[in-house]
Amino acid sequence: MKKYIMFFLLMLVSIAGYSQRMIYRQKAVEVNAGILDQNNIGDNYYFNVTLNSFGRYGNYWIVGAEYQRRNSDYKQWKIPVTNYLGEAGYSLRLVSDRRKFITVNAGITGVVGYEVVNNGDSILMDGAVLHNRNQLVFGTGGRLSVEMYLSDRIVFMLQGRIKMLWGTDLEKFRPSSGIGVRFNF
User: Which residues have C-beta within 8 Å of that of residue 1, sequence separation ≥ 6?
Assistant: First the structure.
């Protein structure tokens, strides 16, 4: 009897199990963090949480929320600029190896959110009046990501992104780069 149990266990262990990746209608949660400006890394950053839904051929839908914090220099002070953004879009798989261990994706999103300048205060520290307002911003975004599967459920990501926002008194083009982790379920 022990021989049969051992034989059965050896059969189970020796069977190579290959899971599929990027399955149609599979869902995933993605968490990203990165920098908005390479000059002041500690002052210019973003956090992003995204829900993904895979379509066919490794492409996926993107729905996410993002928090951005930047500081603009004014004399010897820094003026904080905070953005609360929501985005929705689609990402296409451009290149991948046969087992989909490493993939390169490009995506485009629509962006809408709210921008807060100097924590809502229009008077600066030296008494100057700030003409930039807290306001609704909207636009579009693009991203290029390199995704590496650490396991069938955990993905490590490197991203380069750009957003073009209208409705802001500050710069319209906002490039960023970051890293992230995706959990497929």
Answer: none
Q: Tell me the H-state helices in the chain.
A: 2-14
3-state secondary structure of 73: strand
Q: Residue range 47-60: average pLDDT?
A: 92
Whole-number pLDDT of residue 13:
45
Residue 37 DSSP code: -
Region 87-99: mean pLDDT is: 91
Question: Considering Cα of 48, then 54, then 60, then 62, what sign does the dihedral take?
Answer: negative
pLDDT at 118: 84
At 120, give phi and psi (nearest 5°). 85, 0
Contact 29, 182 (CB under 8 A): yes
DSSP states along 62-77: EEEEEEEEEEEEETTE
Kindly indicate the confidence band of residue 5, based on its pLDDT and cuts at 50, 70 and 90. Answer: low
Higher-pLDDT residue of 14, 137 = 137
Neighbours of 62 (CB within 10 A): 21
- C-alpha span between 103 and 111 (Å, rounded): 25
